[in-house]
Amino acid sequence: MSAIVIDEVSADGQVLECDLRPRGDVKRFFTGKPFEVDYDRSIEGVPEGVLAIPALAHVCPVAWANGADVYADEVDATFARALADVRDVLDSMYDFIEGGELYARRTIDPEPDARGESALLFTGGVDSTYSYVRHRDEEPILTSIRGWTITPDPADDGDWADLTERVSAFADERGLETAFLETNALSALDHAMLLAHYRHRVDGSWYSSVGHGLGLLGLCAPMAYARGVEDMYVAATHWEGIDLEWGSCPEIDDRVRWSGTRCHHDGYELTRQERIDAIADYVDSEAPTLELQTCNRRMDGNCGECEKCYRTAVGLRLSGLDPTARGYPFSHEEYDEIRRSLESGAWELGEDERYMWADIRDRARETEPTSAAERQFFEWLSTADLEALVSESASPLSHRLLRAGARNAPASVYDVAYPTWRTAKSTLERVRSR
């Protein structure tokens, strides 16, 4: 029988640590490393049942996918109910969710010092900037997390420094507080094995498709408890009408809660282009020097050449903003490059991007071009088969077959195979980016 034990939960100053002890088949998805989170201020005094939330938020989806039970000494009762709700949502989304129960020696209902604070997961991209604009009267604590897109690897130290510097500058200009969290959650879990095992059953990686809404919000629980946060916001990536299984959505995020705090999936009622419209209004009224950061290649600015940079630049144009003034070097001559890249499959696109380019296409049909190059691009985009473009840019068959073979390989074999696949994929991405 598979099971996972959350053990030895402790807080030493700013550092949270606990042991993860899996048994049975589920053991393949764990590396044996302790689970750690480093906060930027003390979490001593936070009840153990709240300290357990970050680990539970990451472990439970893995347990549910393997029919494993989870055991902990102490659990916040409000969060335990939230987990049951989220499990039911994931069960309705994915056929591989098998169930599993949470067992605790004791549950607690603490009464935190409610100070009416709010917090917002923040990167400075379109979605989180829109959520700040929407909730700026609340003066939310801007919260950034290292451990997913920016890994704990020392090679990513520069990216983390760039992000914290940028978020801190944004906060200082507006008199806001910040919270910076660093975690090894995705190295305590064997995320590579999860990817190999479930990649064929989700549209994306394990974490993006299954775990990141619950996981990222759960990481914030000790910070939120210590700082009196009552409302925790996570910006929506998608919007109404997008039919994709995704680990962060209203059905999941709005159900996440713990003593003193409720979480909110924010901005889902607006498309990405409509969020850029709101940012444009904010730029006009309050923030003439605002720049965004969305690049897939770097954190110290935007390269202006990757798919996401081009897509954001076009979106800014359609909302009446000069992309160059918002951090995206862009000229109308580059519309030809965007078209060539989309038509040639130079960018590896997914269903996310298809919906986002369709959103841009809808707005472009209503917008008067300001140059011949822009007119030609809008006319092409108006009739382009976006579904076919996404299909043609999918991963090569050889990579998909290697990944499929790894799913059923012993861990010792997989540990050799996965770096080979990853190296091949990185090489392809570098070639495509030229």
Provide a descriptive summary of the structure in words:
This protein folds into 3 domains: 3-117 and 121-266, no CATH class; 295-392, no CATH class; 400-433. The chain is built from 18 helices and 11 strands. The longest helix is centred in the last third of the chain and has 23 residues, at 411-433. The protein has an 11-stranded mixed β-sheet, with helices on both faces. Helices cover 46% and strands 16% of the residues. It has helices at residues 48-51, 53-64, 77-93, 126-135, 157-174, 185-188, 191-198, 206-219, 221-227, 250-253, 272-285, 307-318, 335-344, 351-364, 372-383, 386-392, 397-407, 411-433; strands at 3-12, 15-23, 35-38, 69-76, 102-108, 117-121, 141-146, 178-183, 229-235, 257-258, 261-266. The protein has 434 residues and is α/β, with parallel strands linked by helices. α14 packs antiparallel against α16 (386-392). This is 7-cyano-7-deazaguanine synthase (Queuosine biosynthesis). It comes from Natronobacterium texcoconense.
Secondary structural class: alpha/beta
Structurally, the number of domains stands at: 3
Widest sheet, order of strands: 5-4-1-2-3-8-7-6-9-11-10
Order of helices and strands: EEEHHEHEEHEHEHHHHEHEEHHHHHHHH
Mean pLDDT: 90
Number of helices: 18
Roughly how many Å is the radius of gyration? 22 Å
Cα shape: globular
What is the terminal separation in angstroms?
50 Å
Say how many strands there are: 11
As residue ranges, the low-confidence spans are: 395-434
- Roughly how much helix do the residues carry, as a percent range? 40-55%
Strand content: 15-25%
Largest sheet features: 11 strands, mixed
